[in-house]
Amino acid sequence: MPLRLDFGHTSYQAAFERRDVYGVRHDPNRRAKRLLRVGVVGCGGVAQAKWLPAIRYLQTRSEPVEITGLVDPDSMTRSKVAALYGAATYAAVGELLERGAVDLILVLCPDEMHGEIARQALAVGVASLVEKPLCRRTDEARALCTLAEERGVLLASVANKRFSPPYALARALVADGALRSAPTVFSCKFTLGYPYVDLLEAGTVHVVDLALWFMGPVERVFAIGAFRDGKVESAIISLNFASGAVGAIVTSAAALSFKPWERVEIIGRNAVLVVEDQFELTLYDEETGPAKSWKPTIPNTLLFDESFGGYAGLLENVLDAIRGLAPLGTPGREGLAAVEIVAAVHESLARGEAIELGERTQGDRGDRMGRQ
What we know:
The protein is 36% helix and 22% strand. It is an alpha/beta fold. Mean pLDDT is 92; it is low at 362-372.
């Protein structure tokens, strides 16, 4: 194939031409960028396991970014992250914003707080990157996007899978014509075994974003589901896209999380791309010829979850968008669109009928993403 992508490893140029196998030598081009200061609001699991290490990953690679403040209501958590990252800590985001020394807020607090925290930052001109879902309510998410646009402040939604090598390469292959047509079918199987995580809002919303990213806007949603203890345990979601393509997402909290959990298929015209467990990408484009496959080498000292999971790539893109060096890859409006689709799934499950979105923007609905 004509495309070249490192698939999560150090690039060939770095490893062989610069003799920098770990990709950590001084990078004068990166170092020349404007220094940006990042505040982290919510220092729980996703912050400690993904986003704070992603900042360190970028710093190690000469990215001029610093942690200017860590916000969490729990004193023990503040003490831990302060010791690990050497940054000032605060009990509330207002204390950090009052200092005025922050360019970007990572909103990693509980879902129901996303809107309020991001609003406080946007109101004083501070860019925000908000974990999924952007907000629990579509009207709140829409208002947040409107506020950002009125103030001229960057609002980004977390969609880290877009920057994960298997999906990034799949998107590049589609753009390069590997499917021989525009995508005609999007198919996904997603399972989540953690009983404390909402299946649709916290899990399936990520693959909904993938569907929108690969296929474009949705016009019609229909879902059937099975319930347990008043919550959606499993659902089959059919999607009609504005392009004329169709899609289906099978999602379940009755399966396992440590076994095969995510499979995405994108069908074109006599060609199929398959991504297994956000790990391996395969292109089937011949009836009798060989498949073309990409996957990382394990174990591999060059492979880091901060990079392969897409967190560092997304954060770097947001930083460069703030600097005016790159277009934003995950605009808040696209996070709103994913929230809208999940809300339509809940409505379809409750009403037992298809939800027509038509030509309305997928942020024009005010119903709540929540249990039916």
